[in-house]
Each structure stands twice: as C-alpha cells, then as structure tokens.
Amino acid sequence: MVKTRLKIFAGDVLGGLNSAIVALPQALAFGVATGFGAGAGVWGAVILCFVAGIFGGKIPLVSGITGPVTIVVASIMHALNADISSVILVMLMAAILQIILGMTSLGAIVKYVPYPVISGFMNGIGTIIIIMQLNPLMGCPVMSNTITSVAAFFKNIYSINPEALFIGLMTLVIVFVIPKKFNKIIPGQAIALIICTFISIKAGLDVERISQISVNLPALTLPGFSLYSIITYFHYAVMLAIVLSSESLLTVLVADSLIKTKTPTKQMLIGQGVGNMFCALTGTLPGSAATMRTVAAINSGSTTRITPIVSSLVLFLLISVFSNFASQIPLAVLAGILIKIGYDIIDVKLLRVIKFAPKDDLYVLILVFILTVFYNLIVAVGAGITCAALLYAKRTADRTKLVQKIVYDKDIIKLEKLLEKDYKHKIRVVHIDGQFFFGSATQLISQFEDIWGTKYLILDYSAGDLLDISAIFALEDIIIRLQSQKVKIILIVKNEEVKKQLAKHGIIGQIGEDKVFFTEIAAINFAKECLKNKVKKKHFWDNFK
C-alpha cells in the first residue's frame, strides 16, 4: 500500500514538473500576445493551476492561459482600447459566469456541439495565432487583429529586422525538427526558448526582448464597477466564459479517456471559475484546463490533483530563479513558439480526410473558420451551431414522411358493393415515419394533399418524443383542413405523455376523446364500425326512397 502511494506521488510530481516545463514558454508567449505582458501569463498559470487544482476535481488537470483564450483576451483588449481596468472587469464577470455555469447542467451542452464547429473554430484560432505572429517574427510590432496583421505584413517586408528574423527562423527549425521522442523528455518549445535566447544574448543581437518580469506576488487589483460598465461589457464576459469553459470541458474529456475516469464537470467548472476569479483580482491572465499540458502530465504518470499543485509551484520557482534570463527572451523567439502552437492547434486530422467529408459539414466548417479568423469568435461559434442545427433539421425533415395504406377487408368490400358508384368510402392509415417537429411539419402538411378523398383517416404517431410548438400547430392545421373536407380523423398515440400534451393544447378535444386509441387494430376496428353504420344507413334510405 505504501509503495503504491509513493509510486502515485512520484508520478504526480514528475507530471507536475513536465507540465510546468511545457507551460512556461507558452505562458510567456501568450502573455505577450494578449498585451498584458509575459509576467501576467506566467502568474496567471501559477494562480489558476494552484486554485483549480485544489477546488476543481481529483484528476490532474493542468490549467493556464491557452491559444483560444489568448485570442479572446487580445480581441477584448483591442475592442476596449487597452483599458486594463475594463478588461479585468470582463475577466472577473467571466469567472463569475463560469461558477454559475458550474452550478447548472449547462456544462454538458458542449458534448452536443458538432465536430465541424469545433474543428472550424480551432482551425481559425490556429490560423489567427500564426498570422498575428508573422510580424513579430520579422522584428516588427504585433498587430491587434488578422486583417491589420496581413496588411502590415506586406508593408513590413521592406523593413525586416534581419537579426530578429534569423533568431525567429531558428526557433521554428528547432520546434519543428526535434523528434517527438525528445519532446516527451524535454519539450521542443523549452529547448528552442533556452538555445535561441542564449545565442541572442551571446551574439548581442539587436532584437526586441520581453525586458522585465516581476517576481513579486501580484497585488490585489479591483476594477471599477458601475451598472453601465457591467451592462456594456457583459457580452464580452459571456464570450470569454464560454471559451474558458468549453476548452476546460474538452480537456476533461481527453483526460478521462486517458486515465479511465469520469470527472464531475460541475465541480471542475466551479474550480476553474474560482481560479479565474483570483486571476482577475490579481491582474493576471485567466485560462482553462490546457489539453497539451494535461496530456504531458498524464503521460508522465500523473493521476491525481497533486499534479497541478506541483506544476504551479515549479512554475513559481522557475520564474523566480530565471527571471533575469526570461527578461532577455527575444519576442521573435516567442513568435516562433506561438507559430508552432498555432500549427498544433490546427485540426490536421480533419484536413487529411476533408475531401471525403459530407458537404453540409464542410459548409459549417468553412463558415466557422472564416468568421473566426476575420470577424468574431463568439459569432463564429453561434453561427456554426445554428447552421449545423438547421442542416440537421433539414436532413431529419427530409427523412420524415407519411406512410399510407388503404384498409379494405372482406366486410368492407361487401358493404361497398351495396353502394353503386360510392367509391369514396375508404379507411386509410397514415403513419408519421420520422421526427414530427418544426423542420418536418410544413413538409408533412403538403403531403396530406394527396389523401383528401379519404373518409376515415387514421393518423398514427407512434414516436415517443413530445411535439414542439411548431408541430402542434401543424397538426392542428392538418386536422382543420381534413375536417373541412369532411374527413373523419382517428388518432393513434402510443405515449401517455404525448397524449397529455395534445389534450392540453386542445387537439384531442378537437378530434374527440373517443377517437383516440393506443393501437392500430383498435383504431381500424372503430373506423370499420363507423363505416358499416354509415353504409347501412345509406343503403336503408336508398331502399326507402
């Protein structure tokens, strides 16, 4: 038992060490990319990793600022004209929203986001990171968005800093060339950071550097509160909270699959929200559970929450001991590291099989990608989910149809022979095959045009799903139109909840309680009796005349 516990502890410590080595260059680079500074990125990782590790669950989730969070924070900084106080207020509101989200079941919604939306978003984020780092790679200032970055790139081609470009390209070569087996021991990003920074110092390269990183504990920072600012910036907070939460939830899915666990997402989101609240109140950058760092920890043997706590302590020691060295890191080196991170974010797996993907999925992916890169992240995701839902509704509606059969048995044939030329007395059963909802409702109404001549229509809705309001109104419309054609309607409903729903909306009252059945046999027998009585009455009056 003692040996087992020591083995688990050793795995957690090793995982914490490795994940901290992975996190350091990323936190520095992301901090610079947001405009907050490298120190805000590292200290945010330290605080969030520690707090979320304590409150966020039992599995080894290593947290900190990530690529998508970086782009969102950078876009908010640009939108609010680099007003740090306002951005901190947005981050604080996002953390509170994340805690509220953790108290509900809304976190599970991320499981229903279609893969093309996620892929388009991640491809867009990766592309944004790459585009925005092209200028710093050449020793030129970073731009605030992709459009200005592309425009500035072509202008800056004539004013490149050769020394910055040299050290930036060297960084790219190292991070892309180092074999994966070495990455498992020491991440290529850390190797590139150390080697290229050392060369730039020894060679005395004239390049822009981080300059200074504070090793002092971040001070309490309270943003200015007002009802106007809360209302004005609320949509930014929603956007940030969604990205923070969704990336954490996706990381949990990966971690659970690797260590064969099932993590309570509510507790995890609350822990992340509390950690991000501490980050906002200390003026450091928020983040989420980071997939790359978490996987690195798990592959090193991590299994418990000790890992993120160890990782935060190791990060603190690294930045304390090597702060002077970190301040000499060239921005071109960080740009090279970020370009590699952007490349890793891009969904290469999907790009390999994109020519085999359904067209609907491609439309969604391209829409989300374009909106993410050139317009707005939250609009991109919202538009992607909406588009995917509508396309799914269309496919489902197209599969929904009416299956008809005319009921004629020997008894009915004998009765009909008594009536010359009276061929319209028919019993027809119509099955609604598929989902009856807003997408299929209008299509089904048009399909009823073919059966107006029927006298007894048995409408069979066998599905157990409750109807949405569109389907209820469509059913009501169908009944009114059929009754106007003097068609007698008999309804088969096999689900008691659906029957109660139809009763509440007056559908059953419109048809008649005695004309609602649970089985097709009972409905047909009822229709046959009605038809027999109608035919006998007509035959009697014809003879009487």
Main traits of this protein?
Transcription Regulator spoIIAA, mainly alpha, 545 residues, two-stranded antiparallel ribbon
Q: What low-confidence regions span 5 or more consecutive residues with pLDDT below 50?
A: 400-425, 437-446
Characterize the biggest β-sheet. Answer: 5 strands, mixed
Number of strands: 7
Distance between the termini: 101 Å
> What does the overall shape look like?
elongated
Strand order, main sheet: write it out.
3-4-5-6-7
The percent range for strand residues is 5-15%
Radius of gyration: 32 Å
Number of helices: 24
Tally of structural domains: 2
Q: Whole-number average pLDDT?
A: 78
Structural class: mainly alpha
Q: Helix proportion of residues, in percent?
A: 55-70%
What would you say about this model in short?
This protein is mostly helical and 545 residues long. Helix content is 67%, strand content 6%.
Would you mind describing this structure in some detail?
- This protein is mainly alpha-helical and 545 residues long.
- Helix 20 (438-447) links the parallel strand 4 (427-433) and strand 5 (456-461).
- The chain has helices spanning 2-34, 38-55, 67-79, 84-102, 115-137, 146-156, 162-177, 180-183, 188-202, 227-259, 265-281, 291-299, 306-321, 323-326, 331-345, 348-352, 359-374, 377-399, 410-417, 438-447, 469-484, 496-504, 507-511, 520-544; strands at 63-64, 288-289, 401-407, 427-433, 456-461, 488-493, 516-517.
- The termini are far apart.
- The strands form two sheets. Strands 3-4-5-6-7 form a five-stranded mixed beta sheet, sandwiched between helices. Strands 1-2 form a two-stranded antiparallel ribbon.
- The chain has two domains: 2-392, no CATH class; 400-544, 2-Layer Sandwich (Transcription Regulator spoIIAA).
- The chain is built from 24 helices and seven strands.
